């Protein structure tokens, strides 16, 4: 039995029915490319689920991991390791705000989201019961616990993370998602539910209305946002919107949680996407590319939030928390970002990619909008540019649809791997992508978009 058949027989594939699972057997990976055992060379247009930002098998990171394995791979957090301590310090310094932060390490973005939710709720619990509050604050029960999220969001597949996700994958768990989550409108200028809302202020003010109607500071603990919506459309938030969300949190005493699982580690041309907005969040979540070749995530607590746990238990944990090998890989990856000036390269290649993608919009009627930042882009695909009717509805995420047909064609005929469960063409290449590789990608898109152009109406 070959390895493809063996894996299909004994391994469950994520977010998929198992009947037709047929993984391609891989020989090696390098840079932006996957080499299969049957001789194919496939461009990974999603950077291994946005985990391999600096490309596959970077020698600096591999060497650092080998050195770490010769000395210390893992100890529990009852002990200290140089790589774990150094990474916690590095992240505290690199992220916006005071460097007096504290970091909890997990293995997935979802686990870090769980930590953020617990931290926010306990911070509010402590504020209500242990701090002196105005006598006229009203009656509340039992303490601020509600989390406001947005419909176009994905924060992970564990119970709490899934509960604050507006993505259709939440439907698999309902009606047993965690209570206390409310979804608001998206800052989505191209397809705003608020009508004309280029700066996102209408969407933000509706969040303010939601906070008020959900009980204000007596009931609401936090607002969680992705600075650039990931799986649900690659939608960079307008600057005015993000600033208004920060103001709303300050006005009501809420915590602002920023999920950088997909956007962190340079994906948008900054170390974190929130840096584009000059905003300091209360809690930052990182994952995916943080550990690069090792599972690693981080929940980064501002000093204001972290202090509450000086005398109170931080009620969250995970085996392998602060894994020394993963932390060394993360430190080495940050060194690559800095030494190879990949943030500057990402901005340069992102600008070039934007120009080339807009050429496709001028040629293909199924391209409704070109949208993105850094090396995180999408072609939103539509049936009709005037009505903006999407070519794939939310309910078609796991059914056959034109986007999936396009993705299958690109893999089979053009040797480009791209997910088929998005709202359009997903474009998140490794940050080491070259101009020549971008030209190859755009040429392949141009020769493949006839598939979705065939669904255009009128």
Describe the structure.
The chain is of the alpha/beta class. The chain folds into two domains: 3-54 and 341-453, Aspartate Aminotransferase, domain 1, CATH 3.90.1150; 67-338, Type I PLP-dependent aspartate aminotransferase-like (Major domain) (Aspartate Aminotransferase, domain 2, 3-Layer(aba) Sandwich). Helices cover 35% and strands 16% of the residues. It has 14 helices and 17 strands. The protein has a seven-stranded mixed sheet with strand order 4-12-11-10-7-5-6, with helices on both faces. Strand 8 and strand 9 form a beta hairpin. Helix 4 (82-94) crosses helix 10. The radius of gyration is 22 Å and the shape is globular. The relative contact order is 0.14. The model has no long low-confidence stretch (mean pLDDT 93).
The value of Rg in angstroms is 22 Å
Q: Class of the largest domain, according to the CATH hierarchy?
A: Alpha Beta
Helical fraction? 25-40%
| Structural class label | alpha/beta
Q: How many angstroms separate the termini?
A: 50 Å
Low-confidence stretches: none
The biggest beta sheet, please? 7 strands, mixed
Please state the overall shape, judged from the principal axes of the Cα atoms: globular
CATH fold name of the largest domain: Aspartate Aminotransferase, domain 2
Q: Which strand order does the major sheet show?
A: 4-12-11-10-7-5-6
Classify the oligomer: single chain
